């Protein structure tokens, strides 16, 4: 886990992000979602085989069209997590994914279940804003409500991939319990 000051700052940042959407429209939403992706890195423990102790990069990937423009690059600029530099990779197809730690999936909803099944056993934290994402085995779903970005976590799916999510992150999230509701 990162030092306590870093975790506290990230926790505060995530809490503030939940309330930070304003009237700037979709670009503001995408900026906040990009910041969430980076801040999630502070609250996840990957198995040592996936994120070894050396200085190999922690990879945030985007599968499909990136909604983030330069926002994701801005969010991770010169950042490190547990001594690992953070990098971004964009993928058009799941077969291109070699090393990835957090994957934002932006594909048609009908293809997501196939992607999730192809990623099984790889300890990749999967994130999307698609309805039904958690029901297909995805781990974190971002959604807007009342001009705020919220997130819901499928803790069972994360545990199945040997990912440990911080209790602080879980405390800020809605926990998925088999039914996503209307949001």
Question: Can you offer a commentary on this structure?
Answer:
By secondary structure, the chain is α/β, with parallel strands linked by helices. The protein is built from six helices and ten strands, in the order ααββαβββαβββαβαβ. It has helices at residues 4-17, 26-40, 71-76, 109-119, 155-160, 167-172; strands at 44-45, 58-64, 80-81, 84-91, 102-106, 125-128, 140-145, 148-153, 164-165, 174-175. Strands 3-4-2-5-6-7-8-10 form an eight-stranded mixed β-sheet. It has a two-stranded antiparallel ribbon with strand order 1-9. β3 and β4 (84-91) form a beta hairpin. α1 (4-17) runs antiparallel to α2. The longest helix is centred in the first third of the chain and has 15 residues, at 26-40. The termini are far apart. Residues 15-25 have low confidence and may be disordered.
What is the residue-averaged pLDDT? Answer: 86
Which strand-content bin applies to the residues? 15-25%
Across the major sheet, the strand order is 3-4-2-5-6-7-8-10
| Global structural class | alpha/beta
The backbone outline, from C-alpha atoms, is globular
Radius of gyration: 15 Å
- Taking the alpha carbons of the first and last residues, their distance comes to 32 Å
Percent in helix: 25-40%
Question: In sequence order, what are the helices and strands, one letter per element?
Answer: HHEEHEEEHEEEHEHE
| Total beta strand runs | 10
The largest sheet is: 8 strands, mixed
Count of helical regions: 6
**Unreliable segments of 5+ consecutive residues:** 15-25
């Amino acid at each position: 886990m990162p030092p306590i000051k870093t975790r506290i700052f990230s926790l505060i940042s995530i809490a503030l992000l939940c309330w930070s959407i304003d009237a700037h429209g979709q670009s503001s939403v995408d900026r906040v979602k990009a910041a969430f992706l980076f801040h999630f890195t502070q609250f996840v423990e990957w198995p040592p085989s996936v994120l070894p102790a050396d200085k190999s990069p922690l990879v945030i990937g985007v599968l499909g069209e990136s909604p983030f423009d330069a926002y994701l690059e801005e969010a991770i600029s010169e950042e490190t997590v547990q001594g690992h530099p953070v990098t971004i990779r964009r993928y058009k197809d799941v077969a291109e994914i070699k090393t990835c730690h957090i994957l934002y999936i932006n594909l048609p909803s009908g293809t997501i279940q196939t992607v999730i099944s192809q990623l099984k056993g790889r300890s990749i934290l999967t994130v999307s804003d698609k309805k039904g994402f958690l029901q297909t085995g995805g781990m974190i779903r971002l959604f807007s409500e009342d001009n705020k970005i919220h997130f819901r976590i499928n803790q069972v799916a994360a545990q199945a991939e040997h990912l440990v999510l911080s209790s602080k992150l879980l405390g800020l999230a809605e926990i998925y319990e088999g039914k996503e509701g209307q949001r």
